[in-house]
Structure formats: structure tokens, C-alpha cells
Amino acid sequence: METTSVSDIFGALGNGTRLAIVERLLREGELAAGDIVAEGDISAPAMSHHFKVLRDAGIVTQRVDAQRRLYTVRPEAMRAIGKWSLTYRQFWDQSLDRLGKALSKEKRK
């Protein structure tokens, strides 16, 4: 996937199972699909669907090693989330600064 859409990323991560998969991959690095499936209460076909959604959203990549499918998180996806978050952090910081100044002004009256 060439570009990583923030709305696609958040849409995919809006599912708890997919979010848990990504969090685990971030913690542990590249993992085989079978290792992830083995620890959950989810069927292999359902897990396959979740991996497809994550791949389609540009969050993970799949690498084939013999019979195993190995997954890793794409750094571009994490950068897109970080950039989006920083944009809104700046917005809230500025908004809260303005609110603080307005409240200080009111107190002085």
C-alpha cells in the first residue's frame, strides 16, 4: 500500500481484536499468525479476516516463510497516527491556553 489513510487506520483499529493484534506486534515485533491465533479464543478464519483488514488499511505487512505467515506493523501507519495526534494536541494546547488567559482576565475584573 502506497499511502496510509488515517481514517482507514482508525477504522481498522476500532475493532478490539485488531487493536490487540497491533499492540502485541508493537510489543513483540514480527510474529507468525499461528502464534497469535494459538493464544486467543478466535477461529483461524476469523483471525485471517482481521489480518486482511489490517493489511488493507496499511497497518501491517505480511511476509511468507515456508508455511508461516509472518506479520509486522508498518512504521508508516504509526507515523500517520502520531502526526494526526500531534495536530490535535497542538489545537488543544492552544485552545486551553486561550481559555486560561480568558479565565485569568475574568478573575481580575
Provide a descriptive summary of the structure in words.
The chain has 109 residues and is of the alpha+beta class. The protein contains five helices and three strands. It has a three-stranded antiparallel β-sheet with strand order 1-3-2. The radius of gyration is 20 Å and the shape is elongated.
Main sheet: which strands, in order across?
Answer: 1-3-2
Largest sheet: 3 strands, antiparallel
* Mean pLDDT over the full residue set: 89
Structure summary, number of beta strands: 3
Overall shape: elongated
- Give the H and E element order: HHEHHEEH
Termini separation comes to 57 Å
Helix content bin: 55-70%
Strand residue content:
5-15%
Total helices: the number is 5
Poorly predicted spans: none
- Structural class category: alpha+beta
Radius of gyration: 20 Å
